[in-house]
Design a protein that fits this description.
The chain is mainly alpha-helical and about 90 residues long. It has one domain. Helices cover about 85% and strands about 0% of the residues.
Amino acid sequence: MRAARVLRSLSVIFKNRFGRNRRAGIAVMTALSLPVIVATGGFTVDVGIWDGQQTALQAATDAAAVKAGLVVTASDWPWSSASFREAEP
């Protein structure tokens, strides 16, 4: 019962204090929403950096796979495709 009375009195105080003064209401809304906006921007930048790093790592992996394929193809390992081509009549 006491908590409800306290909440009611706080709502009346805030309504009287910020309800009539638009400038104060805008200041409160800005103060409450600014951390959310800044956090969203920071998260967006982080995701962009992560995506760029993932793309660079994928390109390096692809280049290594192509190079390994060329080395295996050009070598004279018995199971390489070059050996099979030479063995054909």
